[in-house]
Amino acid sequence: MKKAEVKRLYTFSDAQLIAIGNEKIAFMRRDIVEFALFGLNETQFSALETQIEAFSNLVTDIESSSNQVQITEKKEIKAEELCTAIRVVMTRVAQKYGAGSARYKNYGVAALSKQSDADLIITAKRVVRLGTAGLSDLASAGLTSAFLDSISLLNTQFEALLIEQKIKICERVIEKEDRVENGNAIYLLLVTYTQTGQNIWVSKDEAKYNDYVIYNIARAKKL
User: Which residues of 20-40 are buried (b: 16+ CB within 10 A; e: fewer)?
Assistant: First the structure.
């Protein structure tokens, strides 16, 4: 069963959550005597502080996105190198048999630059296989095993980059989910602790009561 999408419970940024969390912890430590009456003390405050620190050190989506873009760029560059190597071989096949011949078409390189990543990998392997089988016949057109070896190497590198790209995409999804789950956990604790703070001061000190208000902008209400 597909896991339901994890949604953020707060509408402000993660940076704001961190700042708000550290601010509220400072207020709770100031009022530690009052919080002790509700079973909350330095142990809980330190645990929340550690949680916030760990959250602040998580990889951001900007970093994850950048990593994904970088590997995608490398993959596209390698794809072009692979296509160029295939064209070098196919130029020789065309010289030998003609670009409109059945033997040329058998290599399956039509619309090479528009082929999907998966199709390009298969095409490269087919070109090497057919080229190797017809090497003695194509030698007169200048084809050597070195050209075919170059395609095989580039194809291996391209396939590795394709796999790495898919891994980066999955990692980004996981990292995003982790950030949301960790942020939600911190937010829920903050709501619990600050509501306690509000209850402590609601009829005693308006300024201290306000110290425990969290403004979740989209909800337009005090928490």
Answer: bbeebbebbeebeebbeeeeb
Q: And the tokens for 128?
A: 């090497």
Distance between CA atoms of residues 89 and 69, nearest Å: 31
Strand pairing of 215-216 and 221-222? Answer: antiparallel
Positive or negative, the CA dihedral 203, 208, 214, 215 is positive
Q: What is the pLDDT of residue 3?
A: 67
Backbone angles phi, psi at 21, to 5 degrees: -60, -50
Where are the alpha helices (H) located in the chain, listed in sequence order? 14-30, 32-36, 42-56, 61-97, 102-105, 117-133, 135-138, 145-201, 206-211
- Other Cβ atoms closer than 10 A to 205: 12
pLDDT tops 70 at residue 140: yes
Asked if residue 201 lies in contact with residue 208, where contact means CB atoms within 8 angstroms, the answer is yes
Of 22-36, 54-68, 74-88, 130-144, the range with the lowest mean pLDDT is: 54-68
Burial of 165 (0-12, 13-18, 19+ CB in 10 A): buried
Q: What 3-state class would DSSP assign to 143?
A: coil
d(CA 60, CA 67): 11
Q: Between vectors from CA 23 to CA 185 and to CA 187, what angle results, nearest 5°?
A: 15
Give this prediction's pTM. Answer: 0.75
